[in-house]
Amino acid sequence: MAIEAEDIARIDALSRALKDSVEPASVAYALQRLVPDLTLRHCDASDVLEEPFRTVGGCDLHLLDTSEHCIRVTEVPAEATGILLAAKVPA
After folding, report:
1. What distance in Å separates the CA atoms of residue 83 and residue 34, rounded to the nearest whole number?
2. 73: β partners
3. Would you say 40 and 82 are in contact if contact means Cβ atoms under 8 Å apart?
4. 36-51: per-residue pLDDT in tens?
5. Looking at residue 23, what is its pLDDT?
6. In Å, how far are 61, 67, 81 from 78, measured between CA atoms?
7. Which helix (H) or strand (E) holds 82?
8. How many CB atoms lie within 10 A of CB 70?
9. Of 62, 28, 27, 64, residue with least CA distance to 45
10. Superkingdom of this entry's organism (predicted)?
11. Measuring CA to CA, which residue among 44, 39, 46, 27 is closest to residue 72?
């Protein structure tokens, strides 16, 4: 199922509500509750070259297309079926 405008609104509300120091595990938990139908994957932010879709707490969020055999980062919300949570290393 592709990400919907309502899901994006929920993610945007989450990014406004959480502080920058929030741990990636907390962001992951909140995302699983807010958008349970989307696939959620984790990695280190240094593993991703693409610009993030959103930044929440200590994480960059990237849209994922998981509809094919190989998962890929996408910039098109209509293609997105998941979210990649890329944890930033604290400074």
Report:
1. 12
2. 64
3. yes
4. 988 999 999 999 999 9
5. 85
6. 16, 12, 8
7. strand 82-87
8. 6
9. 62
10. Bacteria
11. 39
In this structure, what token pair is assigned to residue 47?
């593993």
At 57, list the tokens.
Answer: 């707490």
Q: What is the pLDDT of residues 56-81, one digit of tens each?
A: 888 999 999 998 889 999 999 999 99
Residue with tokens 């929030």: 22
pLDDT at 21 over 90: no
Q: Which residue, among 33, 26, 54, 28, has the nearest Cα to 43 in the 3D structure?
A: 28
Cβ atoms of 84 and 50 closer than 8 Å: no
Sign of CA dihedral 7, 9, 56, 23: negative
Residue found under tokens 């120091």:
21
